[in-house]
Amino acid sequence: MKSLRVRLFAILLLATGLIWLSAMAWIYLGSRREVERVLDNRLQEAARMVSSLVGAVGGPDSDGTPRTFQAPMSYERQLSCQIWSIDGRMVARSSGAPERRLSDAPAGFSEREVDGETWRVFTVEEPEKGVRVMVGDRLGLRERLVTDLIMGLLAPALLIVPLLGLLIWVSLGRGLRPLRLMARNLAARDADDMSPIDAALAPTEVRPLAAALNALFLKVEAARRHERDVTAFAAHELRTPLTGLKTQAQVALAATDPDVTRAALRQIMAAVDRTAHLVRQLLDAARLDAATEARPLTDVELGALVTETVRTMRTPPGIRTVIDPELRGFTIRGDPDSLRLAVRNLHENAVQHMETGTIEWGRRPEGGGVFVRDEGPGIPDEELPHVTKRFFRGRHKSATGSGLGLAIAELASRRSGLSLQLRNRSDRPGLEAEIFRG
Amino acid sequence: MRILVVEDDHIISDGLRAGLAMSGATVDCVATCADADAALAASRFGAVVLDLMLPDGSGLDVLRSLRGRGDRTPVLLLTARDAVADRIAGLDGGADDYLSKPFDLDELSARIRAVVRRASGRAAASLEHGGIRLDPGTLTVTVDGATVTVSRREFMVLAALMERPSVLRSKSELEDRLYGWQEEIESNAVEVHIHNLRAKIGKHAIETVRGLGYRMRAVA
Lengths: 438, 220
Prior knowledge:
The complex is a heterodimer of chains A (about 450) and B (about 220). Chain A is α+β, with helices and mostly antiparallel strands.
């Protein structure tokens, strides 16, 4: 159900209806019991009263036909009375009472079907007078009495239900007004307006929602600031190769010496390569930033992943890459695309900081994970915490680096729920990077 | 003129070396603050092109220590950021001009010539002395209105002498202005250039003071 108001309305109406129905059932059952008790008492009383009168009435008429008598009270429509002698002759009956014997029970309450109607009868036995007095009424009548009672209650209730519904509907509208107001304020906001909602003004129930919205605003604002910063940095970082390109292009255009022209063109090629590399890294970083939903993690075979990734990269002739055979068949849980990106950028970083030497990929001695060691200059300890920041370029920055590689490696590791740790080698100058779960 | 380029990006500094050489300058390139300090302490430069973001610090520090030594070598800043604050800090720190990356090579040359001219107290862009006119912007030399073709090095020698015609320039001073650190210098290179120049602009235009150096002959 979309509308909170409709939903609340339905729930309230249903609940009210249910309570009403149970109340009705209770009243019905209670009334019936009470009516039965009262009417039984009446039967009993009437029977006793008649039996006390029997002595004065005397025996049956001489001609043997039972006498009818007027009941002392106007009971004729509801109560019927019969007086039988102990030996089974009818002595008298009230007018309107059936001629058939109402009960065979010697005394007390009994029920019996006479002429298609069920009668409830109370019998009083008077052995010394030689008679049985039976007073009874029809159960159908009793039932009608209770039904009439309930109907009397139900009729106004049915009239009231629509009124009640209207009242609930209007009250809900008023009750939900703070929500509507908040929604209207939010809808009227500018896209850039990230100012928090005043949670104090919101009703208690809505306050968690307002707080959650404010937290969301903060997050969105932070994301936008981050985006602006990155864009500014990227623009700055792109300017350097563009400056090189422009300068060299002007040299190539103006030079009369063909050697100078050729040298400038070669530099242009290098600058284009570098710019392309930078653009690819910017795209990689942007893609990692954009991947907000968690990627499905699978078991990634590290040996194959590292071998494949390193093979597709250009490594200068002076640099040797060693991949520990132990990595083969060794798996880590992660997103293969992100892991490949992390491995590529770590390898690239190693290559960029070495003239000659060995890059070693291997399995972390303790726990799962993979490490790569290079024989470059390493990173000054005070710069280590900063090198994974975007566009940070330390003292040992390479000629072709963009300041993005380690940031991408870190971001990509995090996308797989893994950590990237960088430290300087203890055995010799060089950087050791580890990717592991922890 | 000899120019020091302080720029850590290899492609840019290489382009500047080639580009500024075409406008008649000798260029030395360094990539760090430390190297820049050392170079500025060791040699005299006609101008410095200084990048602000260097791997071991800010170009502003280099500028500050340069001015702190009382060195008035013209300095042109290169900034990659558009931040006005950077430029103000640069100009207040003693820079003569600035350019934002990416810049135009011709504009950079013109601005270098302008700051050099201003530093030497001249108003005109060209140098003139006794019928000889030298235009650093176009690298042309005219003698009494007629254009004379000179080589780049010859132009630099003539420019050095004509900046202050009455001042003597020693042979090593001229060599310093003609050649960068990495360049091989023939022992009689300056003499050869002077000889060629005399042939082009007139036998007596340049005066040799034996054992001391060269200067322009005083106009009668």
